[in-house]
Amino acid sequence: MKYFKKRLFFILSTSIIGFVLSCTDKSQTAENQENLLWELEKEYIKAHKDADYSKILSMWDENFLGWPSRLENSARKNSGLEYLQKYFSKPMPADTEFQIEKQGIYIENNVAILHYRLLLFENSTRLTHTWIKRGDDWYILGGMDWNE
Q1: What does the alpha-carbon distance between residue 71 and residue 38 come to, in Å, rounded to a whole number?
Q2: Can you name the residues that pair with 128 across neighbouring β-strands?
């Protein structure tokens, strides 16, 4: 009987500890995912600054649909290179600084929506990106900007 009580105590203790850790991990994971997505946004803006087309295109999901303020209509990934070459034909000076002013983030399972202001030179642009997680990686599924 003593052996049974010890074993039952061990099983219950292990279960409770596992439950508490799983709850803690989820909140840390959500915070980590938010931080990761904001870092990806910085990488994305830096890739534009550097005119790194391959980096930008690699961050777009295969089903990407975006509507930059410079375009009359929305565009898919397959027409993205033409847009990038037209508006981001050469890198900005190395000392060009930008700032991301976070406005909001929402993550639901494998989809995230981020709103922010991009401060570059003396301009302010509002951006919305929808990210999708495929496997372990996040990709931009859609985006839109508006120059203020």
Answers
A1: 25
A2: 115, 144
Question: What residues form DSSP beta bridges with 107?
Answer: 112
Q: Which of 108, 114, 106, 99 is nearest to 145 (CA)?
A: 114
Closest C-alpha among 61, 48, 53 to residue 145: 48
Confidence grade of residue 80 (pLDDT, cut at 50, 70, 90):
confident
Q: To 10 degrees, the CA torsion angle through 45, 46, 51, 57?
A: -60
Any idea of the CA torsion for 96, 97, 103, 108, to the nearest 10 degrees? Answer: 80
Helix (H, G, I), strand (E, B) or coil at 139: strand
As a whole number of angstroms, the distance between CA 54 and CA 67 comes to 19
Closest alpha carbon to 147 in 129, 120, 108? 120
Q: Taking the complete model, does pTM exceed 0.85, yes or no?
A: no
pLDDT in tens, 91-119: 999 889 999 999 999 999 999 999 999 99
Q: Which amino acid is at 43?
A: E
Tokens of 109: 């399972």
Identify which of 22, 40, 30 has the alpha carbon closest to the alpha carbon of residue 138. 40
For 93, phi then psi, to 5°, come to -55, 145
